[in-house]
Write a structure and sequence with these properties.
single chain; 383 residues; alpha/beta; Spore Coat Polysaccharide Biosynthesis Protein SpsA, Chain A; 60s Ribosomal Protein L30, Chain: A; 2 domains; eight-stranded mixed β-sheet; five-stranded mixed β-sheet; 19 strands
Length: 383
């Protein structure tokens, strides 16, 4: 290995954040917080290797978050952040001659760190055994009991520490071994305890730490720059022989099937067209011509995933998708939740960004006569 290793630590349970999954796996503008933190170092030209440290129970979440990235297997963290960092350092040390010369230790919950901060920390390691990005405290500080102010605190010389915190590898490894069993707030404190000089470099206001839901909102605002574009999609398929239909990625039992070159998923076809329209990329037939035999009987999640990939390649994110299925039968309500879940999985977006509705035409027209199903969809994409 050698060189410079970024140790991205995300082994916590995120209890203060709340929710069903830890904060580092929540989606931030379409990508997991953990993934964004890892990518910041993967993309930095001076970083040799990026190593994640995760909770032992989070391997499935981690695998989903880093899909498509080339990374070494994650290291299991400890009971505390300090223990997790120590596990990561010991993992690097076990590689003997291949251990790094310098290490950057970063909180996975800081997904907006930029290359400028990383480069300033690395530059400081040329003359100091440790370096921490920080911002001078600008607000007046008060000490109080939660209800009343007790005293004003002199803010002179006070700094708000951030990550990544950088160190010469063998120095910080030895410092962590000495501090085993103690509870220090960050790696700079571990270094200070061992008598290592830690330089201060300029941090960034954008380098926010996601601790509470409001921090996620703030981070999304930082990423919110871009143009909101809307697309519309519409599709129709007639009924034919069969005992089920596929709608929005879900198999639904029915007296008939739907006719089409692919699996005739009218819902996913409409959504795919809406997404393609939002980025000016033609329509589904442009990318998957019905004259091409390779798409015969194809599952429509292939089409939708392709549209999502095109948006990601442009640096865009899906803000919202709204689908209306138009038919007399089958009933959509019992399958709505499964449809939303499936579409969210295909596009790797949060379920709250999806809406699926159903309506009839009051027995009017071809849908009212039970001859087929129609779907219309709208999509908003920020590019």
């Amino acid at each position: 290995m050698g060189g410079i290793v970024a140790l991205v630590v995300g082994a916590g349970e995120g209890q203060r954040f709340g929710g069903d999954i830890p904060k580092q796996y929540h989606l931030l503008a379409g990508s997991a917080v953990m993934r964004r933190s890892l990518l910041a170092f993967i993309d930095h030209p001076d970083v040799t290797t990026v190593q994640a440290v995760i909770h032992p129970n989070h391997h499935d979440l981690y695998t989903a978050a880093v899909q498509g990235l080339s990374l070494p297997a994650p290291v299991d963290g400890g009971a505390t952040r300090q223990g997790s960092v120590a596990n990561g350092l010991e993992s690097l040390a076990s590689r003997a001659a291949d251990a790094p010369t310098r290490v950057l230790i970063h909180d996975a919950a800081r997904p907006l760190v930029d290359h400028g901060v990383i480069s300033r920390v690395l530059a400081a390691l040329e003359t100091s055994p440790g370096a921490v990005p920080a911002l001078a405290v600008a607000d007046t500080l008060k000490r109080g009991d939660g209800q009343f102010v007790e005293t004003t605190v002199d803010r002179h010389g006070l700094w708000r520490a951030q990550t990544p915190q950088g160190f010469r590898f063998h120095d910080i490894l030895a410092a962590h071994r000495q501090a085993a069993g103690e509870e220090l707030t960050d790696d700079a404190a571990v270094a200070e305890r061992a008598g290592l000089a830690v330089a201060i470099v300029e941090g960034s206001e954008d380098n926010v730490k996601v601790t509470r839901p409001v921090d996620m909102i703030r981070a999304e605002r930082f990423l919110g720059a871009g143009e909101a574009r809307c697309g519309l999609g519409f599709d129709v398929h007639r009924f034919g022989d069969g005992d089920h239909v596929v709608l929005c990625g879900v198999k639904v039992a029915h007296d008939f099937g739907l006719e089409g070159h692919s699996d005739a998923d009218v819902g996913l076809h409409a959504v795919t067209d809406a997404l393609l329209g939002a980025i000016g990329a033609g329509d589904i037939g442009t990318h998957f011509p019905p004259s091409d035999p390779q798409w015969k009987g194809c599952e429509s999640d292939v089409f939708l995933r392709h549209a999502g990939a095109l948006i990601a390649a442009k640096g865009g994110r899906i803000s919202n998708i709204d689908v209306t299925l138009i038919c007399e039968q089958p009933k959509i309500g019992p399958h709505r939740a499964a449809m939303i879940k499936r579409m969210a999985e295909i596009l790797n977006i949060s379920e709250h960004r999806l809406s699926i509705k159903a309506t009839t035409t009051e027995r009017l027209g071809f849908t009212g006569r039970g001859e087929g199903i129609a779907a219309q969809a709208s999509a908003t994409v920020v590019v």
